[in-house]
Amino acid sequence: MSTAQRTLHPRLQALQDSFAASPLTEVFSPALSQRQLRLWLKRDDLLHPIISGNKWRKLKYVLDHALQSGAHTLVSMGGPYSNHLHALAYAGQVLGLNTVAYVRGESPEPLTPTLQDAQAWGMRLRFTSRSDYRLLRAYKDPASLPGLQAGEYWVPEGGACERALPGVAELVAEVEADMDAPFDVLAVACGTGTTLAGLVLGAPSHTQVIGVAALKNADFLQADVQSLLASHAAQARADWRLVSDETGAGFGKTSPALLSFMHDFEQAHGIALDPVYTGKLMFAIDRWD
Ligand SMILES: *Cc1c(COP(=O)(O)O)cnc(C)c1O
């Protein structure tokens, strides 16, 4: 199924039209040229001031499906710092959809900046014990969450579902169009692994797609990515593999090595990395042979 010709819901099309094209920029360093590597960054963080790039890419066809099926409310889940919830709350407000979120743990006092924004955009927050929160992870399909009312549309944690993949795959076509030569490797940081799976779907068969896990021990990710790709098996031909985070920091945590690397990277390239994902990704790439 080709997604390029699919007609988006007009309200979603209008939102997409408000986005900038994200630039592809080459990064230079003595260490890279020594190893005869060339490195480009797809600056999807510049797509939109609020919805960071891959969150939009993953939500695009999920939101389209919700709108096309007449949903009036999006229901999802996330932690108190979830960029997924942040993006969903904003998109919901722009698209005229109500949003409801199951938030992990007790209500922080004060609310995190992420949740303050989400609430200001109209998201209703339902704080959920860690054990109940874990149970919500079992539900993947839009209508699968027990107790869902008519017109309510369930979006799993991190937007991790098969419908998220084609939106990410479109990013690969943009990269190919901007390059003057074929690339060998696509690399991305992984939380749920959905972005990685989307890249695999979009990548040409000669490419290797490498996911750097934002968690120290991410063995379960392998199975998650495999199951996301199962429904797209015919199109997903690129090789992929996962590597673990080597910075010594846990998920959402930092380490002295990571912080000092991020500081040096920003000094050298004028690009700020985040400690959760892009910092760990670039740290890993910096150590490749
Ligand atoms: C959210 C995020 C990720 C994780 O994406 P998954 O699809 O959950 O693996 C990786 N990198 C960045 C920059 C992100 O914002």
Describe the protein's architecture and organization:
With 289 residues, the chain is of the alpha/beta class. The protein contains eleven helices and nine strands. The chain has helices at residues 10-17, 30-34, 53-68, 83-95, 113-120, 130-136, 165-178, 194-202, 219-230, 256-269, 278-286; strands at residues 24-27, 39-42, 73-78, 98-104, 124-128, 152-154, 185-190, 208-213, 239-243. The strands form three sheets. The chain has a four-stranded parallel β-sheet. The protein has a three-stranded parallel β-sheet with strand order 7-8-9. A two-stranded antiparallel sheet has the order 1-2. Strand 7 (185-190), helix 8 and strand 8 form a beta-alpha-beta unit. The longest helix has 16 residues, at 53-68. It is globular. The two termini are 37 Å apart. The model has no long low-confidence stretch (mean pLDDT 93). Residues 52, 54, 83, 158, 189-196, 277-278 line the site of pyridoxal-5'-phosphate (PLP).
Brief digest:
The protein is of the alpha/beta class. The chain is 40% helix and 16% strand.
Which helices and strands occur, and which strands form pairs?
Blueprint lengths: L9 H8 L6 E4 L2 H5 L4 E4 L10 H16 L4 E6 L4 H13 L2 E7 L8 H8 L3 E5 L1 H7 L15 E3 L10 H14 L6 E6 L3 H9 L5 E6 L5 H12 L8 E5 L12 H14 L8 H9 L3
Parallel strand pairs: 3-4, 3-6, 4-5, 7-8, 8-9
Antiparallel strand pairs: 1-2
Helix pairs in contact: 3-7, 4-5, 7-8, 8-9, 10-11
The structure holds pyridoxal-5'-phosphate.
Descriptive key words:
289 residues, alpha/beta, 4-stranded parallel β-sheet, 3-stranded parallel β-sheet, 11 helices, binds pyridoxal-5'-phosphate
